[in-house]
Amino acid sequence: MSEPSTGRRRSRGKREARDGAPGQNPHLERPYIKRGIPTYDILGEDALQQIEATADRIMAEIGIEFRDDSDTVEMFRKAGGEVTQLDDTRWNTKFAPGMIREILKTAPAVFTQHARNPANNVEVGGDNVIFAPSYGSPFVMDLDKGRRYGTLEDFQNFVKLGQMSPWLHHSGGTVCEPTDVPVNKRHLDMVYAHMRYSDRPFLGSVTAPERAADSVEMCRVLFGADFVDQNCVIMGNFNTTSPLVMDGITTQGIREYAKAGQGSIHLPFLLGGAVSPLTMAGSIAQCLAESMVSCAVAQLERPGAPVVLASFLSSMSLRSGSPTFGTAEPAVGSLVYGQLARRLNLPLRCAGNFSTSKLPDAQAMQQAMMSMMSAVQCGANYLLHSAGFLDGLLSMSYEKFMLDLDLCGALHSYYDGVVVTEDTLGFDALAEKGPGEHLFATAHTLRHYKTAYYDSALDDNQPWETWDEQGEIDMATRANTRWKAQLAAYEAPGMDPATDEALKDFVARKKASMDDAWY
Amino acid sequence: MSEPSTGRRRSRGKREARDGAPGQNPHLERPYIKRGIPTYDILGEDALQQIEATADRIMAEIGIEFRDDSDTVEMFRKAGGEVTQLDDTRWNTKFAPGMIREILKTAPAVFTQHARNPANNVEVGGDNVIFAPSYGSPFVMDLDKGRRYGTLEDFQNFVKLGQMSPWLHHSGGTVCEPTDVPVNKRHLDMVYAHMRYSDRPFLGSVTAPERAADSVEMCRVLFGADFVDQNCVIMGNFNTTSPLVMDGITTQGIREYAKAGQGSIHLPFLLGGAVSPLTMAGSIAQCLAESMVSCAVAQLERPGAPVVLASFLSSMSLRSGSPTFGTAEPAVGSLVYGQLARRLNLPLRCAGNFSTSKLPDAQAMQQAMMSMMSAVQCGANYLLHSAGFLDGLLSMSYEKFMLDLDLCGALHSYYDGVVVTEDTLGFDALAEKGPGEHLFATAHTLRHYKTAYYDSALDDNQPWETWDEQGEIDMATRANTRWKAQLAAYEAPGMDPATDEALKDFVARKKASMDDAWY
Predict the structure, then answer these.
(1) Which residues face A64 on adjacent strands?
(2) Is the pLDDT of residue A339 over 90?
(3) For chain A, which terminus, N or C, has the lower number of CB atoms within 10 Å?
(4) Is B403 within 8 Å of A434 when comparing Cβ atoms?
(5) Are A292 and A309 in contact (CB under 8 A)?
(6) Is the pLDDT of residue A3 over 80?
(7) B440 contact residues in A (CB cutoff 8 A)
């Protein structure tokens, strides 16, 4: 393992904090958030039990269809699943009520994902909260060049911008698709970029079992093989094929991560009415069933492997059938899903800064807030899609990335809630001058001046006249200025040159070992 | 009282619903919302008691300063207050712990505010939620003409746009300042506009006791004097003069409304660090003390008069001292204030769609959502500032008004929460085709297709290519198109001509009775 130094965090923001540039809030910086407020629980016991019973019925009476992975089917058969072979490559498997729940008892409620800089290790589960950038967009966009396919340079840019922000805790995974790199080699460049340009934890490849294996192998180079065997240093984000199907690429990938003792996230991506019932209660039940079975694949492969229960609840336009993101119904659905995750005692990934807008405009942030606040309040532990999401996840936006980062900063303060002490109650501050006198100069005000409120990097709070004189600049334009300034100021965190060489060598050898594939 | 017919609601939207224009959601229309989700309670019993004890100490040890209204001081003296005369026009009054709480026991937990159309009556308090437009901006703005002083025409426009929307439940009060009308006559035109162009409940004038009296008198013309004496048909929104002062205009106005059996809202507008402690716990305690004493003025004048406890918690820029709105700290503060209001068993006004942005941009909706969701979740009953708020309340924006209305519609669905029944659990829908098959054509999907998700009037959910071909229009521009189309389609709700004449006559006589005053 390379020898990271906590001092390297200095490359991210500390210098700016000293000269007081906008958006610095050193009192709020932390490697991950520990929530100071309770979750928002909206459903009572009876309703929760009805949803759980429906999930049980789905698993017991409809079953999950596995494809192209007889080993996974065999694991479930041995564990008590009722397998029906449908054809050469497809098996339906039904699970008696309680069976999957029993298997999941070996999964940890909380686990550590290690970063190459130990100061950036994150705790996944419990009251802990981790913000990670958006994941999986083929396009990128910015105000200067509009929408275009993502490249490796874009990918590296987003990793760098994330690394520079104190308000993310995790480097994410496919921050955008580097479409200028062959499909079968992208994972090598992506994993290297996370390792080299960030010193936070990250996600590895899931698009093929051998790419998952490469991701883990690169971690062995970076962290050392023994360390990797004993600790979670990488996670994969796996989607079920809803409704109720798990393909072989996915189940083999999950097992690859689990076998190595690494983490996996188990995500049903449910567009209500398309791949799940149109009504939210039904989508939630199906989501629970799918994610539980997916988590169980990892537990059967290696009991105790870290897993994250997940949900991506979505809606559709009642006019066109188009998917819609950041709407009200999935937001309340996510609150319920959080309650169910806690009853399973599993870490949760849920929602994020979703939007269908094509611009970093009012729609973008209205929808993002609807979705993101549900993630905050439902008790989600790992918030993928915390920054950059636009265009229904088809585009990663440079400006939206900065808007979302600024929001993530404010959420650090939100999670702290209202602290009640003699000092914060401020009776003496009010008594000092009494009725009718302002409190600007009280000792209490001066004492709390720098920490009472989050200082936004992007909000305009000036008088209208000043804003007008300065050119009537909107928030998206301010974000455009900011991401360029941030990228220009980026400095890579230090890395032992021998480790860097070993990683580059691994990438080069792997790339040389196969022809380019573009699909 | 004029004879309103429930059929008049037809002028608002029903026709549009039939031909399926965007934004119609007839299943969500209702005269006010009854919340289907619990409140979000973030503080425990000990912390709540500490805040209440601090509010008690503020009232008992610092006291409230009354100005220019010896009658109010005399009422409190008789009720047990400890009065110290400071000079000819100022008195400090201290209240023993529990005294104000005892006085407030006569206030109703829930009351009805009547509209001239009884179908639009609202219930204030309990689980009921009422959205009202923003209040008090001297300026208006739109994308075509930018910012300028508000006029009576603007005022009428906002009343009309509000009336046309199914997502507001109340016509509000000073939707903008009609600065082209003399200050001492504005209230007459404003109250007339609410009565004539809307058939929902509204707020009256509070800027002088005689204007409060005129507002009530006009209600007697519209509803009949006996009806007004027995029912709440108008409310006034009264601000304390923080910290801890109540001026005579305010206390006399409160008594004017209470004397007539009408409602009053009791609002401390607290900019933390300026007129209240910088730390949120202290602001909340002070807010509670001020609003409770203000409510007590009404109860002493006429026990049982409808009152609404209120809060407007705000923060400031740590750089400039400028007020900031829609930030995280007041949002969590509002959640706590909601808990305190319920312990007093009083209706609550709290937060709204706040922003300091000068444009209907990303900042506007990010901040608006932060604040509005806190109002939704804290259990607020009356949400003033639900639509139009920009520029730190200095400007009422036509476009923001439409954005906020669309959000208010979505919140109707949010408040319904997740409904769990055999039908919404949708097991049969999933079982119908089984794993791997989409659900577009299931009976369940077809049955719920029109009501499962809110249909936004303004969101763009199209594919990027379609949006691009149509001119890359942002949400603010869509809102600009929409408010113009809505205004062009406006039809006034019917009114008995004799009542209309009587109202116009009252306004004309009052205006003729005094010279214009412009300050």
Answers:
(1) A93
(2) yes
(3) C
(4) no
(5) yes
(6) no
(7) 273-274, 321
Residue A21: the pLDDT is: 80
* pLDDT exceeds cutoff 60 at A4: no
Cis peptide bond N-terminal to A243, omega within 30: yes
Residue-wise pLDDT for B172-225, tens only, equals: 999 999 999 999 999 999 999 999 999 999 999 999 999 999 999 999 999 999
Query: CB distance A440–B321 less than 8 Å?
Result: yes
Minimal CA–CA distance to B345: which of B302, B379, B298, B301? B379
Q: What are phi and psi of B112, to 5 degrees?
A: -100, 130
ipTM of this complex prediction, to 2 decimal places: 0.95
Residues of B whose CB is below 8 A from A456: 327
Single-letter amino acid, residue B12: R
* A contacts of B461 (beta carbons < 8 Å): 317, 320, 322-324, 356, 392
Distance CA B22, CA B457 (A): 5
pTM of the model: 0.96
- Would you kindly state where each structural domain of chain B is located, as residue ranges? 12-39+104-241+255-282+296-416
Chain B residues within an 8 Å CB radius of A139: 464
Please write down the HEC assignment for all residues of B173-200.
Answer: CCCCCCCCCCCCCHHHHHHHHHHHHCCC
> Which among A141, A461, A468 is the top mutation candidate for probing chain B, defined by the most B β-carbons within 10 Å of its own β-carbon?
A461
Q: For tokens 């600024």, what's the residue?
A: A406
Contact A439 B276 (CB under 8 A): yes
In B, minimum Cα distance to A46 occurs at: B420
In chain A, which residues have their Cβ closer than 8 Å to the Cβ of B472? Answer: 358-359
Domain at A12-39+104-241+255-282+296-416: CATH architecture:
Alpha-Beta Barrel (3.20)
Check whether B2 has a pLDDT greater than 70: no
Q: How far apart are the first and last CA of chain B?
A: 34
For every residue of B391-456, which 3-state class applies, written as one string? HHHCEEEHHHHHHHHHHHHHHHHHHHCCCCCHHHHCHHHHHHHCCCCCCCCCHHHHHHCCCCCCCC
Is the CB of A318 less than 8 angstroms away from the CB of B364? no
**Average confidence score pLDDT of chain B:** 95
pLDDT category at B492 given cuts 50, 70, 90 is: very high
Q: Least CA distance to B362: which residue of chain A?
A: A362
Mean pLDDT value across residues B368-377: 98
Query: Would the CB atoms of B452 and A392 count as touching at under 8 Å?
Result: no
Residue-wise pLDDT tens digits, B292-321 = 999 999 999 999 999 999 999 999 987 888
